[in-house]
């Protein structure tokens, strides 16, 4: 990610689109028969003309409201789904055409879906993965020891997968995704439904893998903490289209307002008119000004206030990431 060192583009999607056809069938036998004659369908554009480049070693957050097309993107990048149009190159390969080779190179976690063998003890599941990914005995032993330190797999190493709690299962999924030293790991809602302690453990693990082995991570999550903790760069998807790609900080700056809160003598009489002020709220002597940081600086605003009023106390409140991400998930970013 550092601009002075040469970074390699690992994932490149160009004009990537995926449409789904949803066939509609009328009610009853008549509708059923009719559906053979005339196939009526609705076309859903799950992903539209997506351009995306991800460099080696990056950790990007891929966010957007439900149905935005996040999982569909991940499925195309992993080779599970074939794009309707556009191209994808992952480490020089077309992931769909070279699914097997691509699979050796990547790790994936899909929310609550498990890729482990339900009836097998965890230990046996991992032995199978070891064989599939052709991990050497020595490397395997080291890897499991190392993972155990952060994910504490030994707590349930001998238990069948189906007996594990959600948090334990997810710890296994994470370990499985990183077992074979993949270049890229795609995590689609890996912390959904987990308690804080498990989330933290999982984040620590992802961070460690990224720092230590430069593994590229693409993370889809509803959890603000995950994004704050792990991702410098975020991509925002809205009904299939990319509407933001950049630093998390700039996203926050761009889409939220700052607040200046003051206690002012005779504050109830306070009034101000300046470009960039979005809201003025007054209660007793307390005044809150919501302003757009792009249009007016806090110092200019402060100066204007101080010229006209006696300020007893003041505080500038920065926007919080939580409100931005909530906005992204709830309404998209476009005002
Ligand atoms: N297999 C499918 N068949 C039909 N429609 C689908 C299929 N998978 C996803 N969709 C639709 O594509 C859109 C994007 O879905 P998805 O990628 O799962 O969104 P997200 O992961 O952002 O919640 C949604 O409208 C969803 O209903
Ligand atoms: Mg999804």
From TrEMBL:
**Coiled-coil ranges (or none):** none
Where in the numbering of this chain does the ABC transporter domain appear? Answer: 11-264
Any one GO MF term held by the record is: ATP binding
A Pfam family of this chain: ABC_tran
Report the protein name in the record.
ABC-type uncharacterized transport system, ATPase component
Native organism is: Candidatus Nanohalobium constans
Gene3D superfamilies given in the database record: P-loop containing nucleotide triphosphate hydrolases
TM annotation in the entry: none
Q: Which SUPFAM superfamilies match?
A: P-loop containing nucleoside triphosphate hydrolases
Per UniProt, which keywords does this protein have? Answer: ATP-binding, Nucleotide-binding, Transport
């Amino acid at each position: 990610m550092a601009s002075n060192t040469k970074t390699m583009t690992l994932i490149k999607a160009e004009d990537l689109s995926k449409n789904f056809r949803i066939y509609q069938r009328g009610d009853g036998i008549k509708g059923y028969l009719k559906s053979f004659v005339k196939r009526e369908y609705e076309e859903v554009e799950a992903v539209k003309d997506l351009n995306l480049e991800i460099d080696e070693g990056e950790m990007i957050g891929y966010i957007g409201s439900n149905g935005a097309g996040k999982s569909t993107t991940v499925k195309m990048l992993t080779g599970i789904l074939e794009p309707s149009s556009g191209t994808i190159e992952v480490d020089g390969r077309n992931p769909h055409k070279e699914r097997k080779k691509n699979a050796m190179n990547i790790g994936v976690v899909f929310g609550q879906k498990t890729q482990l063998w339900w009836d097998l003890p965890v230990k046996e599941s991992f032995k199978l993965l070891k064989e599939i990914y052709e991990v050497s005995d020595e490397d395997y032993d080291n890897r499991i020891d190392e993972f155990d330190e952060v994910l504490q797999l030994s707590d349930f190493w001998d238990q069948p997968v189906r007996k594990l709690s959600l948090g334990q299962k997810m710890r296994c999924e994470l370990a499985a995704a990183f077992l074979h030293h993949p270049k890229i790991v795609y995590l689609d809602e890996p912390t959904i439904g987990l308690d804080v302690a498990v989330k933290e453990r999982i984040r620590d693990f992802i961070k460690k893998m990224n720092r230590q082995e430069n593994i590229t991570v693409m993370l889809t999550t509803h959890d603000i903490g995950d994004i704050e903790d792990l991702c410098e760069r975020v991509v925002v998807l809205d009904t299939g289209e990319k509407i933001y790609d950049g630093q998390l900080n700039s996203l926050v700056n761009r889409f939220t307002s700052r607040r200046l809160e003051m206690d002012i003598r005779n504050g109830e009489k306070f009034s101000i008119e300046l470009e960039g002020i979005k809201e003025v709220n007054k209660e007793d002597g307390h005044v809150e000004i919501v302003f757009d940081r792009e249009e007016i600086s806090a110092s200019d605003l402060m100066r204007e206030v101080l010229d006209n009023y006696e300020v007893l106390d003041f505080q500038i409140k920065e926007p919080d990431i939580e409100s931005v991400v909530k906005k992204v998930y709830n309404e998209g970013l476009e005002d």
